[in-house]
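Task: sequence design from structure.
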């Protein structure tokens, strides 16, 4: 957990473009955007998989999702966005701290995510 890049971002040990922060999560710009607008909503508690969550984690993640919806307009996602949570190897999860991708700012095609270039 100590070498987790998102834990370091949450603690301010690695710089990031933070757009929002509360007790439960931070929202940052993805360093390698796959759409015109690409944010990461990162719960502050470190865990990798949905299957590892406690009941309280599930409540907290629900609240993070609710907040992401409320922030959409501020983030320039008022026309809609795609919410993605990659889980494990087949989904190409590269950072093992659960996070939600918010993609938008353009009309998204089915294949946009991970295939932009
Ligand atoms: P995933 O493949 O779902 O695990 O997504 C990890 C995401 O984190 C990728 O889209 C990366 O571009 C992004 N990422 C990795 N390191 C950083 C960082 N230091 N700041 C912002 N985004 C990052
Ligand atoms: Zn972490």
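Answer:
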């Amino acid at each position: 957990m100590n070498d987790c890049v998102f834990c370091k971002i949450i603690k301010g040990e690695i710089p990031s473009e933070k757009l929002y922060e509360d007790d439960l999560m931070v929202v940052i710009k993805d360093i390698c955007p796959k759409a015109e607008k690409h944010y990461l909503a990162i719960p502050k508690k470190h865990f990798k998989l949905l299957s590892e969550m406690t009941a309280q984690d599930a409540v907290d993640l629900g609240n993070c999702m609710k907040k992401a919806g409320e922030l959409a307009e501020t983030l320039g996602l008022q026309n809609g966005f795609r919410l993605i949570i990659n889980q494990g190897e087949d989904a190409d999860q590269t950072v093992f701290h659960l996070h939600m991708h918010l993609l938008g700012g353009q009309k998204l095609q089915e294949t946009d995510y991970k295939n932009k270039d």
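The CA atoms of residues 42 and 99 lie 5 Å apart.
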